[in-house]
């Protein structure tokens, strides 16, 4: 008797799920919102630039913002009130939140001696603390027996020094994100809440403005990446869909590196 083929598509199907994506107005976050919506999820796309979110929502479905699979919400994730409102809006769709993608962030200054006390604190507040507090809010509304996937976006700078590119505050925030991911996975695992991180390498986004237009820095990326290039648009989205869906139902506390071989070199 032959064994039936597994229903592979259903493993990645997010129909009926509700996902929050922060930092969704551009770059990787915009791609994450498109991918999750394409897999069937209702996506609460959050960022400070509401106009960009509204354009995204219309492009994905062709209808007015708020009527398609992407619901744009203006949100400053460093604001407690904004985080509370964001989770309330998401939970109101089906009564719970299934996926949270903590993607909002900003780069730091390249040299440690240029860091100010205020700048260092502000960057950690956005890149690390805000994601923790948002994750805690999602966990607080989690429904018993309903799996939740929390995905924190880190960076290769959180695992190795990439001086002169990067910065002390940015490296601290992204390294902290990986440590936070492990700890929350341990604390919440018995509740059915999985917490994982994605660790992207070098992608041409607002976060890396100028990196790929400068031949010296672009060449540095090519020489030190096994695939000989930076990441292309959409090449992190498969990892995100894997972690967001039932395809990774037995994966938690993991940092999934998507870097073209940067760290393995």
Explain what the structure shows.
With about 260 residues, the protein is α/β, with parallel strands linked by helices. It is about 40% helix and about 15% strand. The chain has 8 helices and 7 strands; from the N terminus they run αβαβαβαβαβαβααβ. Helix 4 runs parallel beside helix 5 and helix 5 runs parallel beside helix 6.
**Going across the major beta sheet, what is the strand order?**
3-2-1-4-5-6-7
Order of helices and strands: HEHEHEHEHEHEHHE
Q: How many helices?
A: 8
DSSP summary, beta strand count: 7
CATH architecture: 3-Layer(aba) Sandwich
Overall 3D form: globular
* Integer average pLDDT: 92
Low-pLDDT stretches: none
β-strand amount: 5-15%
Tell me the layout of helices and strands.
Layout: H1 8-11, E1 18-22, H2 27-38, E2 42-47, H3 50-61, E3 70-74, H4 80-94, E4 99-102, H5 117-140, E5 148-153, H6 168-188, E6 193-200, H7 215-223, H8 237-244, E7 255-258
Parallel strand pairs: 1-2, 1-4, 2-3, 4-5, 5-6, 6-7
